[in-house]
Amino acid sequence: MNNRLLETYKAHLLTARGSSVLTAETYGATIRLFFEFSSRKQADPSLADRELCIQFFLERADLGIEGKTLARDLAALRSFFSFLVSSGIRSDNPASLIEAPKRSQRLPRVFDQTQVDAFLSAIELDRRGGLRDRCLFELVYSCGLRVSEAVSLSLQDINIQERSILVTGKGNRQRMIPFGQTAAEWLGRYLREERPDLAGKQRTSAVFLNRYGRRLSRKGIWKRFQEIELRSGLTGKIHTLRHSFATHLLEGGADLRSVQELLGHADISTTQIYTHLDSDSLRLYHADFFDNYRAESDISDHDSREADI
């Protein structure tokens, strides 16, 4: 019964709510944990009250889960009970009465411009997939892409003449992002020289392909990043390139609202974390950025990878 209810809820997220597959799977995983918890308490999860929900979160906290993850778990529970209300299974949402835990605000790790170049230069172009990897991470950095957005990128989303890509982000929200000349050159090389070889006889619209000619997965991208990371001597995550994109734009004089739109943030408060970086570091990055890369370029022109970061 619970398994069927869970699958119905996940289908509801995908169809009625327009949530991404990742969100449906993530929320579904939380609800499955709640089902297991309710079973141990010999309670029906669909009839849970506020007290049972609180006990669930206390157990999660005892396991060391905190901050952002607990807040996401609460969002999943609220969403699940909202689904039950809309389905006529119950009349109230007990999770709506629970206060969300405060998230610890960690400043994002960023690479400075030299480190970005060191990471990209560490990609081996003489190996199969090398051009793909250089093109992939150039675009992740130049456009501030999430991993899921890079995975889902298709050929019809690219306009090389206008140097822009159409990105589908969270909640299926779409945004158009320009990219610079450097990224355009690597993209052109990859599409001409390596993608046909990777595709083989496979007919797919995916931009980034694995060695079997299928769409490169999140796991595949993570694996490639980790290998390049080790070779470059840097420490970070794929999202570090997205953080660096946002930080470098703000350092270069872009306004917060523009960066919000480029990142695809629904709420500008999410973007504001990039303004909390240490001012001394900002001044240092800003000086280095302009001295080495911005002497003869304008950020609005997007004429190079450094110009539009």
UniProtKB/TrEMBL annotation:
GO terms for molecular function: DNA binding; tyrosine-based site-specific recombinase activity. CDD domains: INT_XerDC_C. Pfam families: Phage_int_SAM_1, Phage_integrase. The keyword Repeat does not apply. GO terms for cellular component: cytoplasm. Keywords: Cell cycle, Cell division, Chromosome partition, Cytoplasm, DNA integration, DNA recombination, DNA-binding. Residues 106-287 form the Tyr recombinase domain. GO terms for biological process: cell division; chromosome segregation; DNA transposition. Gene3D superfamilies: 1.10.150.130, Intergrase catalytic core (1.10.443.10). It comes from the Bacteria. Its main location: cytoplasm. Residues 1-85 form the Core-binding (CB) domain. It is found in: Cytoplasm. Site-specific tyrosine recombinase, which acts by catalyzing the cutting and rejoining of the recombining DNA molecules. The XerC-XerD complex is essential to convert dimers of the bacterial chromosome into monomers to permit their segregation at cell division. It also contributes to the segregational stability of plasmids. Belongs to the 'phage' integrase family. XerC subfamily. Forms a cyclic heterotetrameric complex composed of two molecules of XerC and two molecules of XerD. This is Tyrosine recombinase XerC. The gene is xerC.
